[in-house]
UniProtKB/TrEMBL annotation:
Statement: the UniProt record of this protein carries the keyword Metal-binding: yes
MF terms in GO: metal ion binding; metallocarboxypeptidase activity
Descriptive protein name: Metal-dependent carboxypeptidase
Annotated InterPro entries: Peptidase_M32_Taq
Source species, domain of life: Bacteria
Organism for this UniProt entry: Shimia marina
Lineage per the UniProt record: Bacteria, Pseudomonadati, Pseudomonadota, Alphaproteobacteria, Rhodobacterales
Length: 491
């Protein structure tokens, strides 16, 4: 076997073990008994130790040094690029630190969930301080004297920096704030009301998932506190949640997670259990969930079909027409929860978190001051006060599990989705006629062919440019939002 072949055989096993570790995480959130949390933390730490050891195995360095990349094709070069980057980054983090982070964040997740349920910020802060301390150590090791937060962002969005993100957000904020103010000053569409049994929501949500091409032979849907997607290749699982007075929470959480799952299920089978067999970045991943959820799922054509499905499942639910239902689905509401935020306000939630977590990691904000900083910023951005911790600093799972640098990728995903939607509409001019029948295949097929099947072949920005023919820009998203909500609200 050549050095490249030996490297790929070794990497195949590492990728398989990584999938096992991911399944432990899915189980912890979806079906693990509460009393197993302590043991699971030890199991996660053990798995991380094994993976860390494989990622920095000296043989990997020897194989990489022996490979002449000039002799490799595009796919092989991409494999080597990913493995070399992982090897270099992982080698900077001590094994005992990696294991401790896995152990503490596994335990922290349960503590956060209980604190959120109890509205008890003080009960969570000591654990969060542990997580922050450990992640700062990791960031310092990775940055090697550079920007700690940049090193964290690079885990989720390669080749992106905090300064670039801040510049993008600063450019977007004025138009978002102006649109929000104009919309909230106008007459709002009818608000959804009534009771929607959870079992009927789950029956319809399975139909929605199928309408977007989710392959149930290689997946499943479960209910959790915070919806997510887990896995890749032949085992890609999604989760959702139900609220009996808000079925949109369930339906659009499901469509969102199907977007993530479709990316993983759509990757070329030749990349299974290789570095290319997963989405290239969290921002590109989020572009799939957001275009599925918003530009497609909340569009006038698809909501017309969903209106008929809701009538069939729930009977008369108080909305008179498909056009009125389109307005209801896209109603801009005051609210606290990021995952429930409308398209107009969602990115403002992300900008808040980006600034706070960046300050935390750089040491400019103390953990004990985090709740006050959150509440002050929220009041300034949204104009009203946070009423309880589960609507504020305790609402998201991310910090409890150490995902610092992750939040900005949600807005990057929205930006990428805006670019993809512009290109999709140009490529498939008759799209709405199909969406009106609940047929998303032309849209999802275009996304699979132009983006999803390539997995991690290209870097994030190049992935979007390959699909759209243009470099990523925030302009298509802002233009789309202003046109859509300007029409709905008569601006």
């Amino acid at each position: 076997m050549s050095a490249y072949e030996q490297l790929m055989a070794f990497e195949h096993t590492t990728q398989a073990l990584g999938q096992v570790a991911g399944r432990l995480g899915w189980d912890q959130e979806a079906i693990m008994p509460k009393g197993a949390a302590g043991q699971r933390a030890e199991e996660m730490a053990a798995m991380e130790s094994v993976l860390h050891a494989r990622r920095i195995d000296p043989k990997v360095g020897e194989w990489l040094a022996a490979i002449d990349t000039a002799q490799l094709d595009e796919v092989a070069k991409a494999h080597v690029r990913h493995i070399a980057k992982t090897y270099a980054r992982t080698s900077k983090v001590p094994a005992d630190l990696a294991a401790e982070i896995a152990k503490v964040t596994s335990r922290s997740q349960g503590i956060w969930a209980q604190a959120r349920s109890d509205e008890d910020v003080a009960g969570f802060l000591p654990t969060l301080q542990e997580v922050v301390n450990l992640k700062r150590q990791e960031g310092q090791a990775l940055a090697a004297g550079g920007d700690v937060y940049d090193a964290m962002v690079d885990d989720y969005e390669p080749e992106m920096t905090a300064a670039e993100i801040a510049a993008m957000f600063d450019a977007m904020r004025p138009r978002l704030v102006a649109l929000r103010a104009a919309v909230l000053a106008a007459e709002a569409p009818q608000k959804l009301s009534g009771h929607y049994p959870a079992d009927k929501q789950m029956a319809l949500t399975a139909k929605l998932a199928a309408s977007f091409g989710y392959n149930f032979d290689h997946g499943r849907i479960d209910c959790v506190t915070h919806p997510f997607c887990s896995g890749s290749g032949q085992d890609v699982r999604i989760t959702t949640r139900t609220s009996e007075n808000d079925p949109f929470n369930c339906f659009y959480s499901t469509i969102h997670e199907v977007g993530h799952a479709a990316y993983e299920q759509g990757i070329d089978d030749a990349y299974l259990l290789t570095p290319l067999g997963r989405g290239v970045s969290m921002g590109v991943h989020e572009s799939q969930s957001r275009i599925y959820e918003n530009q497609l799922g909340r569009g006038r054509a698809y909501t017309g079909w969903l209106f008929e499905q809701m009538k069939a499942e729930f009977g008369d639910f108080g909305i008179e027409s498909a056009e009125a239902f389109y307005g209801t689905v896209n109603r801009v509401n005051d609210g606290y929860i990021r995952t429930e935020a409308d398209e107009v306000q969602y990115n403002l939630h992300i900008m808040l978190r980006f600034d706070l977590e960046r300050a935390l990691m750089l040491g400019d904000l103390a953990v004990n001051d985090l709740e006050a900083a959150w509440n002050d910023r929220f009041k300034a951005d949204f104009g009203y006060a946070v009423d309880r911790p589960s609507h504020g600093v305790l609402q998201d799972v991310h910090w409890s599990v150490g995902l610092f640098g992750y939040f900005p990728t949600y807005s990057l995903g929205n930006v990428y989705a805006g670019c993809l939607n512009e290109a999709l509409r140009a490529a498939v001019p008759g799209l709405d006629a199909q969406l009106a029948q609940g047929d998303t295949s032309a849209a999802t097929g275009w996304l699979r062919e132009n983006l999803q099947r390539h997995g991690g072949l290209r870097e994030p920005a190049a992935t979007i440019e390959h699909a759209t023919g243009k470099a990523p820009s925030g302009a298509p998203l802002l233009d789309y939002l202003e046109a859509k909500f300007g029409e709905i609200y008569g601006l």
